[in-house]
Structures are given as structure tokens and as C-alpha cells.
């Protein structure tokens, strides 16, 4: 899957290329017959979150859903953020314990 990140868009030279990439992305995401068709802002936000996320795991979890609403996409993103935050906290705790052990010796 080729996904365009916002920082990559800045580097691109032609609008035609960007549009082609976005069309390919939308077709791959299979959100064309969306339940959000009457809610363009929610649909745009949902799709933007999917396109700009740095986490491939978050993107994969969103794409597993057939036609997620904005709330589902936000829940998936928040869940992944929480997992990463807890993982970072565990790493910091391990580092702190290893430093304390060194000082106790």
C-alpha cells in the first residue's frame, strides 16, 4: 500500500501526482460507498487521520474495518497511542530500576 504522508506531499512537485496517489489510496481503502457520504466533514477527517498517521499498526487496524465512522477511527488511534505510552512508561521504569540497582551495589 502506498500512503502519502503530509511531509511527503510538501516534497512533491505536481498536483496531478498527488491527486493520482490520493485516488489510489481511496480505492484501496474501499470507503467509496461510505456510510458517511452525507457527513463530508466527518468523512474528510476520518480519511485524513488514516492518511497522516505515522503508525502502520494504526493504519492497518483502521483498514481492517469495512467502513469505519470517525469515532471508530479516533478510538483505534487513541488505543494505539495508549499502548505506545504505556510501553514507553514501562521502558522508563525498567531503566530507573536498573540505575537504582547499580547504585545499590
Characteristics:
74% helix; single chain; 105 residues; 5 helices; 0% strand; mainly alpha
Structure, explained:
By secondary structure, the protein is mainly α. It is built from five helices and no strands. The protein has helices spanning 6-11, 15-29, 40-52, 56-64, 70-104. Helix 3 runs parallel beside helix 5 (70-104) and helix 4 packs antiparallel against helix 5. The longest helix is centred in the C-terminal third of the chain and has 35 residues, at 70-104. It is elongated. The N and C termini lie far apart (52 Å).
The helix count comes to: 5
How many strand units? 0
Shape: elongated
* Contiguous uncertain segments of 5+ residues: none
Written as H for each helix and E for each strand, in order along the chain, the element string is HHHHH
What is the first-to-last residue Cα distance? Answer: 52 Å
What's the Cα radius of gyration?
19 Å
Q: Give the strand content.
A: under 5%
Structural class estimated from helices and strands: mainly alpha
- Round the mean pLDDT to the nearest integer and report it: 74
- Helix proportion: over 70%
Main sheet properties: none
Amino acid at each position: 500500500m502506498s500512503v502519502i504522508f503530509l511531509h511527503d506531499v510538501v516534497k512533491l512537485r505536481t498536483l496531478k501526482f498527488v491527486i493520482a496517489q490520493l485516488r489510489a489510496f481511496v480505492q484501496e481503502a474501499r470507503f467509496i460507498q461510505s456510510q458517511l457520504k452525507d457527513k463530508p466533514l466527518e468523512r474528510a477527517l476520518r480519511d485524513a487521520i488514516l492518511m497522516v498517521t505515522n503508525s502502520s499498526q494504526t493504519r492497518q487496524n483502521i483498514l481492517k474495518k469495512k467502513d469505519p465512522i470517525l469515532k471508530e477511527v479516533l478510538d483505534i488511534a487513541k488505543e494505539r497511542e495508549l499502548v505506545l505510552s504505556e510501553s514507553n512508561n514501562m521502558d522508563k521504569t525498567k531503566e530507573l530500576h536498573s540505575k537504582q540497582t547499580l547504585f545499590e551495589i
